[in-house]
Amino acid sequence: LSGLDPAQPYFQGTPTEVRLDKSDADFVDVIHTDCAPTIPYLGFGIGPAIGHIDFYPNGGEQMPGCDKNPVSQIVDIDGIWEGTRDFVACNHLRSYKYYSDSIVYSDGFLGYPCASYDLFQAGNCFPCPEEGCPNMGHYADRWKDKLKSDVVKLYLNTAENKDFPLWRYKITVTLSGKSKVRGYVNVALYGSDGNTKQYQITKGTLKPGNTYTTYIDAEVNVGDITKVKFLWNNNWVNPTLPKLGAATITVEVGENR
């Protein structure tokens, strides 16, 4: 039984007979997309974990792409009716859009077990455990017999619009060169199944010998990594023509470690 952002008003905090609960089926998975408090934030979705596994994409409260300006959303590519509806309840309705995307992307929407969204964003719950990460949506029931604890909260990020799934990587760059400069470092991944755009690893003071780490949520599952593109720029013309390189770049794939 899949709960698509089950309702908060009149249901949150009520007895289990009244609302969705994991006692309702052999396996209950829940996608929370609008669980900010109804008062004053007008959140429509229930906040607490109520299933066997509960997914909190983007933290479960504010979905990317739902903060577009009202005009652009109401005159939506899918038509004025769909756009108006999205404007009124965009976060709430993301749950079924993620679910429908998950049918197509059987390898997507990996939910990382974590105590909170802040810890997930900071990389504390990366990579997936040895047994892997459950997939939010249609394929969540692959985990029916693998659960080890009563409450499993899972976090992930999604794109702003269709196609929604993203794949998480940890990228660590150690710089080489002769002198420190200011600027930014970008990295793109190339693999057997596709390439990513450039992602910024760090900006500010770039010091040879220093190591910089970031987590990226890529729009493509690149498969086996074949090449990494490294680019740095200091945004202005420097007459000393500083040179900077990457001594090493390490890429860790969240899905399979």
UniProtKB/TrEMBL annotation:
Q: What is its EC number?
A: 3.1.1.26
Superkingdom in the source lineage = Eukaryota
Q: What class of enzyme is it?
A: hydrolase
Q: Kindly state which reaction or reactions the protein catalyses.
A: di-(9Z)-octadecenoylglycerol + H2O = (9Z-octadecenoyl)-glycerol + (9Z)-octadecenoate + H(+); 1,2,3-tripropanoylglycerol + H2O = dipropanoylglycerol + propanoate + H(+); long chain 1,2-diacyl-3-O-[alpha-D-galactosyl-(1->6)-beta-D-galactosyl]-sn-glycerol + H2O = long chain acyl-3-O-[alpha-D-galactosyl-(1->6)-beta-D-galactosyl]-sn-glycerol + a fatty acid + H(+); a 1,2-diacyl-3-O-[alpha-D-galactosyl-(1->6)-beta-D-galactosyl]-sn-glycerol + H2O = acyl-3-O-[alpha-D-galactosyl-(1->6)-beta-D-galactosyl]-sn-glycerol + a fatty acid + H(+)
What residue stretches are annotated with the PLAT domain? 167-257
* Alphabetical UniProt keywords: Cell projection, Cytoplasmic vesicle, Disulfide bond, Hydrolase, Lipid degradation, Lipid metabolism, Secreted
- One Pfam match: Lipase
Biological processes annotated in GO: lipid catabolic process
MF terms per GO, please?
A: galactolipase activity; lipoprotein lipase activity
Q: Quick check: keyword Secreted in the entry?
A: yes
Q: Does the keyword Secreted apply?
A: yes
PROSITE patterns (alphabetical):
PLAT
* Topology term for the membrane: Peripheral membrane protein
Q: Name one GO cellular component term.
A: neuron projection
Q: In which pathway does it act?
A: Glycerolipid metabolism; triacylglycerol degradation; Glycolipid metabolism
Q: Where in the cell is it found?
A: Cell projection, Neuron projection; Secreted; Zymogen granule membrane
Assigned protein family:
Belongs to the AB hydrolase superfamily. Lipase family.
State what protein this is by name: Pancreatic lipase-related protein 2
According to its UniProt entry, this protein's organism is: Sylvia atricapilla (blackcap)
Q: What is the lineage of its organism?
A: Eukaryota, Metazoa, Chordata, Craniata, Vertebrata
